[in-house]
Design brief:
The protein has 188 residues and is mainly alpha-helical. It is built from 8 helices and 3 strands; from the N terminus they run αβααββααααα. The chain has 2 domains: 82 residues, Orthogonal Bundle (Arc Repressor Mutant, subunit A); 87 residues. A 3-stranded antiparallel sheet has the order 1-3-2. The protein is elongated.
Length: 188
């Protein structure tokens, strides 16, 4: 197994953040929460071991001494890390696998002892999807206040994050539409 093949998707995300700028693990967690958390979560329990793994493989390196009251170590991506990241960006991605606990609960809701449980599970799903859509709309409004697709030259300035947020908004609206159809049938 090559050094790159053994990396987790979280390790690649960490290298992606470090390709933007040198930063501490805390900074990476904060950025991940602000940007990719709706489709890729990074927990401290994943991050810190992955930083060490990436450093051991020579893809990142520490910058100076740990600083601050919590001894935050800053990291930067190495040239080997940049080259590996470029290969990963060009490589085919793993197939999409959705892990959605609410949908699993809805799937098995008929097994609940309370007869109203499937109805409650569906309404909980609807409420959660509406919260997600509100969150995504807020992020999209911050990024593109006019909520119109940018011209190609404007899109080039914004980069891929705008496209990812638009994808999330579309996916959330699709889920919301599906839930409304199902809830509508249930109430008929």
């Amino acid at each position: 197994m090559t050094e790159e093949a053994s990396l987790t998707p979280t390790a690649w995300a960490i290298m992606g953040f470090l390709s933007l700028a040198p930063q501490s693990g805390y900074d990476i967690l904060r950025q991940a929460k602000e940007t990719i958390t709706d489709f890729w979560g990074i927990s401290p329990g994943q991050l810190y071991p992955q930083l060490q793994t990436l450093a051991n493989k020579g893809f990142i390196r520490p910058i100076g001494e740990a600083q601050g009251p919590h001894a935050r170590q800053r990291w930067e991506i190495t040239e080997n890390g940049r080259q590996a990241l470029q290969r990963w960006l060009k490589a085919p991605s793993a197939p999409l696998r959705i892990r959605d606990e609410r949908l699993v609960k809805l799937f098995f809701s008929s097994r609940a002892e309370e007869p109203e449980h499937p109805h409650n599970a569906l309404h909980a799903l609807k409420a959660e999807r509406q919260r997600l859509l509100t969150h995504i709309d807020s992020a999209l409004g911050t990024l593109l206040p006019e909520k119109e697709l940018p011209t190609p030259s404007e899109a080039a300035k914004l980069g891929a994050p705008e496209l990812v947020i638009r994808y999330g908004a579309h996916a959330a609206r699709t889920a919301e539409h599906w839930v409304k159809r199902v809830v509508g049938k249930e109430q008929a």
